[in-house]
Design goal:
alpha+beta; Glutaredoxin; Glutathione S-transferase Yfyf (Class Pi), Chain A, domain 2; 2 domains; 4-stranded mixed beta sheet; 10 helices; 4 strands; about 10% strand; binds glutathione
Length: about 200
């Protein structure tokens, strides 16, 4: 099998893809890229220009969930959670974290607390799902945990003290900490040098 992954270390979509591929024991060439300087070879394979892009035996898979499905064909995703994370949660997180990109009146670096509150409302689904167990579907990390926690990690990192002290998200906080401490997460956060295309 001949496989290549274009990836960016801190991208939550790329993280979920790397977790799937790692668990499946897939042997692939890791090509670390910069979002502001995407290699031609990646754009040629996937003109939409987002990471991750996985190319396996000539087939291009350029959606993170599809890469997870390729790596874990038996994975049974909790679709209500995935849709919340990729839909409204991501929407509100971006507007909370990067408020100035969405409103010219806002100073760079300022956050939007209305969008933060909406994102917290979205996370109530995770908080509720975690009642009685450490992960979203029991005592073992599953595909939905892997697909979701990189985004919650990004959200938590915007205002760490606020996140850690929020009484409405106690189970989600503990779940995130547990996910971050897994050997799987360590493995996929290994640093790679930037890929230099052959000249
Ligand atoms: N729906 C895509 C979204 C991937 C995505 O948006 N990745 C971001 C990085 S986290 C990206 O590459 N954005 C393009 C850019 O910033 O130029 C997937 O699930 O793979």
């Amino acid at each position: 099998m001949d496989a290549i992954l274009y990836s960016f270390r801190r991208c939550p979509y790329a993280m979920r893809a790397r977790m799937g591929l790692h668990l499946a024991g897939t042997d692939y060439e890791h090509r670390e890229i910069l979002l502001r300087d995407k290699p031609h070879a990646m754009i040629e394979a996937s003109p939409k220009g987002s990471v991750p892009v996985f190319i396996v035996d000539g087939t291009v898979i350029d959606e993170s969930l599809d890469i997870m499905r390729w790596a874990m064909p038996d994975a049974n995703f909790q679709t209500d959670i995935i849709e919340m994370i990729d839909g409204p949660f991501k929407h509100h997180m971006d507007r909370y974290k990067y408020a100035s990109r969405y409103d010219p009146e806002v100073k760079r670096g300022d956050v939007n607390l209305e969008h933060r509150a909406k994102a917290v409302e979205n996370l109530a689904l995770i908080e509720k799902t975690l009642v009685g167990h450490a992960y979203l579907r029991g005592e073992d990390m599953g595909p939905t945990d892997m697909a979701a926690f990189p985004f919650v990690r990004q959200f938590a990192a915007v205002q760490r003290e606020w996140w850690a002290s929020n009484p409405d998200l106690r189970r989600t906080q503990a779940w995130l900490d547990t996910c971050l401490q897994t050997p799987l997460f360590d493995a996929i956060m290994e640093k790679h040098p930037l890929w230099v295309p052959p000249s």
